[in-house]
Amino acid sequence: MPKAVLTLNAGSSSIKFALYELGHSTQRLISRGMIEGIGEAPRFTACAPDGAVLESRAWQPAAAASHEQLLQPLLAWITAHLGDEALVAVGHRVVHGGALFHSPARIDPTVLAELEKLVPLAPLHQPHNLAAVKAVGSLRPDLLQVACFDTAFHHGMPAVAQRLPLPRSYTDAGVRRYGFHGISYEYLAGRLRALAPTLSKGRVIMAHLGNGASLCAMRHGRSIDTSMSFTALDGLMMGTRCGSIDPGVVLYLQNACGLDVAAVEHLLYHDCGLLGVSGISNDMRSLVESEDPRAREAIDLFVYRIVKEIGALTAVLGGLDALVFSAGIGEHAACIRSEVCDALAWLGVECDELANDRHETSISTPRSAVRVLVVATDEEAMIAAHTAELMRARSPLLMEERRVS
Ligand code: ADP
Known about the structure:
The protein is of the alpha/beta class. It has 2 domains: 169 residues, ATPase, nucleotide binding domain (Nucleotidyltransferase, domain 5, 2-Layer Sandwich); 178 residues, ATPase, nucleotide binding domain (Nucleotidyltransferase, domain 5, 2-Layer Sandwich). It contains 17 helices and 13 strands. The strands form 2 sheets. An 8-stranded mixed sheet has the order 5-4-3-2-1-6-8-7, with helices on both faces. Strands 11-10-9-12-13 form a 5-stranded mixed sheet, with helices on both faces. The termini are close together. It binds adenosine-5'-diphosphate. Adenosine-5'-diphosphate binds next to helix 11 and helix 13. The site of adenosine-5'-diphosphate (ADP) has 13 residues, from helix 11 and helix 13.
């Protein structure tokens, strides 16, 4: 019987999943889906790789509260779909691996306890990631569970890029720059290696522009600096997050505006960015279509912050050979790519507008001093690949049986 691995990306309002059939050395996507409306009216949807809906189900609002109750129907659906013994492992997106975890880790009680200690570093993400781990552990203790970290790809950044200018005691206690979106960047580095092997060894900036947005400067396919740092709040302006702001603003909000810590946290994570500036939406599509001048102001600031940060990372790299756009906005918003490229004309960037409008992979002109590419990211595929690798290392016999049968 074919074996399968499940990937889970558990957040506060949704759990995204993907299901892969394990081959001897590769894995094939069988289904993608989501449990959404958590805390309101949960809905479970599973789709085939071509988007056809395989299963769609809703619960009564109060019926499902815990991650265990939410994941139970998904695991039951997988059993009904693939058979009793098909699922062998679950790979989780875990946002923070701290200083300890540089690569995907098999989750056991010791690892879980270490990951719990990192909750204060990522209070809005880590608890949900770990709740899914605990739920799977309780529903299916037989499954191998693997944690893949958003921070791990940046672990090798030079010390100077990891340090914050704080007293050493704070740095020693873990208050330093970690960086995020690492699972996406690792996938994109692999794709660039396949698409343009020589270019991938050069000075590259990857732009992961989704609801969360960041940049990563790479040399030889490795992160040497990135725009997010201690938390996923830093760097670029995002859908609802502020990105870099003067820390004095945080003090002012508390001292002069009377906001308590929880209110400031909510403001910075949920009410800022595209939503805060436009007062309309955090969704780039709505802003691009809007004729409200506040939408234009929000887009202008979004682009300005990207361009400014690309300038800083280009200085860190000592020049730029390639710029790669990815994630929802990077892959689909041709107008944003075009505006960023125009503002980088001083670097010799020249966008081929026709190729850009067609969302082609290469969108720079042959004359451009910097290659500009659009590459779709796939964090689930990366998590599945790591999980399968640990699965194969743990149970080579299981994989051997699969190859023989
Ligand atoms: P997440 O970080 O939640 O995974 P995504 O990578 O899916 O987010 O990106 C979501 C963003 O991508 C939203 O701002 C959305 O408006 C934007 N987006 C998706 N498709 C388009 C499009 N065709 N044009 C402009 N923006 C788009």
